[in-house]
Inverse folding.
């Protein structure tokens, strides 16, 4: 196993990188201009956080790789993001449902990281938590607005929840990297965040008149890199093509 | 050679003349992102905190600080990024808040929304979107004069 601290920083940074890129795919094509701008702003926050996480991962690794090298010169099997964030955007409702599910986990994780024994991680969390609180406010409002909206929007939000639900469970699966982080006082145990997440779901899905799926089967293999879904490779060919065609190009 | 160390007060006054690249009506010190100015030996160290972690203005701000200080004869300069404590709109100066309002951007309020329309001053305002043209702003509208306006998000 790689250094668990390096792995952990890559997991945090790859989540924000992959979701940031996915959300940015809406830029210029969102349903209305305000949503277009909102999605672009959220993508920008996530990419900014990525620079902090992957920058720290590069420092921890101490092998001469910076945030850009990690973002653009790794292949699918080296990515450590959750399967949820690499799922395609689908329709606007599916994008917002994915955002809500991730925000629920992300905000709880960042709040836990604010008291990390690692000063730089605590500082990144303190910065990010303000931005993600704002993301959460919007994604939960939108899930409620569309879920408890028209017959059409309600159906689309329930469909989105049903499609994405099998990818939600991975957020709360602990492994040996997490155990090492807990032992060093660096990060909370993701499994311990589940109860708070269920309470959030009960609140928001209740207000949205949506039904939480009963089957908790969870796809796994994103955060440990063992088995990403087929979507990540396609996304990376798009995201990384310039650095692969013209290595280390700058402007 | 005599090393002339410009007083910190003068450096702060110079930085107060560097405009924010996105909202040029306020300065970097009005924005509250310059956290410290100090001489370390013969090197001037400026500590800057980002507003939003992905704000594209951050690199321009660093460039503007460097350009402004070099133009005034500072030779050895180092810029330090500080994440904690995280930037808050509480650090916006009172002068900065007034300048924002006069410019047509409603200053941040702890209540979470603008106090009134920056144009006609009516308190009858409504939110259009939580986000706006830069990471630090949201879009609101006045229901009295019907003008849309930017609101500086309170974080």
């Amino acid at each position: 196993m790689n250094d668990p601290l390096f792995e952990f920083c890559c997991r945090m940074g790859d989540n924000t990188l992959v979701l940031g890129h996915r959300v940015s795919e809406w830029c210029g094509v969102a349903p209305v201009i305000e949503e277009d701008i909102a999605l672009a702003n959220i993508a920008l926050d996530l990419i900014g956080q990525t620079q902090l996480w992957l920058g720290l991962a590069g420092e921890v690794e101490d092998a001469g790789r910076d945030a850009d090298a990690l973002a653009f010169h790794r292949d699918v099997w080296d990515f450590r993001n959750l399967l949820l964030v690499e799922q395609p955007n689908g329709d606007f409702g599916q994008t917002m449902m994915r955002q809500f599910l991730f925000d629920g986990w992300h905000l709880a994780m960042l709040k836990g990281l604010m008291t990390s024994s690692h000063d730089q991680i605590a500082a990144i969390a303190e910065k990010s938590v303000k931005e993600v609180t704002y993301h959460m406010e919007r994604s939960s409002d939108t899930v409620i607005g569309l879920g408890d909206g028209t017959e059409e929007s309600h159906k689309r939000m329930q469909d989105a929840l049903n499609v994405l639900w099998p990818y939600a469970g991975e957020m709360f699966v602990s492994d040996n990297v997490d155990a090492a982080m807990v032992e060093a006082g660096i990060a909370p145990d993701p499994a311990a965040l589940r109860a708070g997440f269920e309470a959030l779901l009960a609140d928001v899905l209740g207000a949205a008149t949506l039904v939480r799926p009963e089957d908790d089967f969870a796809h796994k293999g994103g955060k440990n890199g063992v088995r990403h879904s087929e979507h990540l490779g396609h996304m990376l060919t798009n995201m990384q093509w310039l650095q692969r065609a013209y290595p280390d190009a700058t402007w | 050679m005599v090393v002339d160390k410009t007083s910190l007060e003068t450096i702060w006054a110079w930085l107060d003349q560097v405009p924010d690249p996105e909202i040029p009506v306020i300065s970097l010190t009005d924005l509250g992102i310059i956290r410290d100015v100090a001489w370390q030996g013969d090197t001037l160290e400026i500590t800057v905190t980002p507003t939003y972690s992905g704000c594209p203005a951050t690199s321009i701000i660093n460039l503007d600080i460097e350009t402004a200080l070099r133009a005034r004869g500072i030779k050895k300069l180092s810029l330090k990024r500080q994440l904690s404590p995280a930037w808050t709109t509480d650090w916006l100066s009172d002068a900065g808040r007034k300048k924002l309002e006069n410019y047509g951007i409603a200053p941040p309020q702890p209540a979470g929304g603008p106090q009134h329309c920056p144009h006609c001053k009516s308190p009858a305002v409504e939110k259009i979107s939580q986000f706006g043209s830069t990471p630090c702003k949201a879009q609101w509208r006045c229901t009295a004069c019907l003008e849309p306006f930017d609101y500086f998000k309170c974080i």
